[in-house]
Amino acid sequence: MYKSLFITTFSILWLGCSQTEYSEVPTSVRAVFEVHHESDAIDALVTDLLASNDKIEEAWGAYLLSREIVRKGVNFEALTYLERAEVLFRSADNKEGIKRILLLKAHAYWSLGAGEEILAISEETMRLREGNLKGWATAAGNYTTYLLDYGRYEEVLTYSDSVLAICRQVDGGINPSEAYAVRAEALQNLGRDSTAVDTLITLALELIDRTIPDVDKKNIYFRALNLNALDQPALARCIRFAQDKEFWSLEAKSREKFTDYELLGETKEMALKAEVEANKRALAEVDEGQSKFLAFELARGQTEIYGYQREVRLRKIALSVTVILFVVLLIGIVLNYRSRIMTARAKLSQQEAELALENYKNTIRPHFLFNQLNNVSAFLNQELIEQAQEYLSDLGQFLRSLLEEQDDQTIELASVIKQLHAYIALQKKGSYAHVAVTINIPKELLKVRIPTGLLQPLVENSFKYAGHEGGVSPSIHIQAISSEELLTLTVEDSGYGEYTTQGGTGHGLQLIKDRMAFNKSRSKMPESWTVTTLFKKEKGTVVLTMPL
After folding, report:
1. What is the architecture, at CATH level 2, of domain 429-548?
2. Is residue 141 within 8 Å of residue 118, measured between CB atoms?
3. What are the b/e assignments for 357-368, b being 16+ CB within 10 Å?
4. Could you tell me if 250 and 40 are in contact, meaning their C-beta atoms sit under 8 angstroms apart?
5. Would you list the domain boundaries of the chain?
6. 2-227 architecture in CATH?
7. In the predicted structure, residue 347 carries a pLDDT above the cut 60
8. Which of 2, 200, 344, 422 could form a disulfide with 180 if both were Cys (CB 3.0 to 4.6 A apart)?
9. Would you call 288 helix, strand, or coil by DSSP?
């Protein structure tokens, strides 16, 4: 739920505090920068730029429109304009436009659930802004937020040192509240200097009542909630703010910790009802946003493939049919899933709503589709049309298998193994053909049912570490054994070697732990539900135990 709660939180001051550099900005565009973003005149000015026959003016119009969309937190609608502006700016080698677009693009893609590829976008943004203190601090501040989300806490501290130093050095223009909050959470996650954590989040909260954008306040409130830094009156203020701005995920998160109902003039029953309603609305927002985002990515992938078709005309018909079938299949999956969510939503309690949201993220994650589309693009760049078609077919089968079991609390091991074989086949056709995978599940255990969604994230992590470590014989071994009334599942890989990202730091493992904890809380044998991990350079092991 953590990432979904953060999808729209972003510091607008980070977007706007970089110094304006007019060397590469047309005179016709400069007038727009001088108009306040809430002025009625800006819409007409931006519309004129978008309709211009001059490609650079059109690019700036697309940038300005996407910037206004991002200010409001509606990032999906900005993607088309961001992509168009980037193409135009890069074709003209307009570095001022590129660095502005990349800042917005990294945020928009991150908030919509893209994977770690956004770090590369953010790093390019920082390189382009070197030599401009405010501009670099803007990009570095955003970078620390992304690093924090991916568990790279030491790097967060390194970059936040520089960002806060610039905040103290530059006279005005940068509000340090976001930097305080990010640094506090990194220190907390590293288990360091609790006094500094308290001081930093207190400083951030002291700035929250100043004139800063609502999404800044929202982000600070979320981090304060993660650090348990809000007392009951502060929680009441946070809930009122969330209700006023319709930040449903923030309201739901705040109400989890809120107990002094009289501060809001509510009874306990009223508060619980409001919490369930906030969870439902948050889920609806994620459902709608992710569906649109998937449709956008599919359309973008289709456009890229059509461009390639123009260069390989002899294969046009076969490739067109493949792409259309793939798009239809995925759109059908999205619509089917949306229908199921709408049906189930009325039955969700507070905790079930949260778990459904996590399940949604784990079932169809945008960064998973990013990776798969990149693999297809790689095949096409090498003119491997048949391989691309075969890969798309396998991907469709894998997504169908996920859809078939997404509403079930448990699944047979036989079905899990079938899904794993499909997933492993995809990985081997992509970047991990060199990884040897063995599965050892006794026949007598194939009918045993386990909670859904346990093994695939673990295998995915093993591919990530074993596949990148550079060893001679990278391997993954999956095993199930039983003893008396206990089932033991083991996923073991050949370790992360010299790969810089160490095992056990990702969100996939935390999702598994949450899933196991949920089942433990409802089990008659809670002591049987355990998660044991051991991550070394030469070996990585995760062991799950549960009642048969």
Report:
1. 2-Layer Sandwich (3.30)
2. no
3. bbbbbbbbbbbb
4. no
5. 2-227, 267-407, 429-548
6. Alpha Horseshoe (1.25)
7. no
8. 200
9. helix
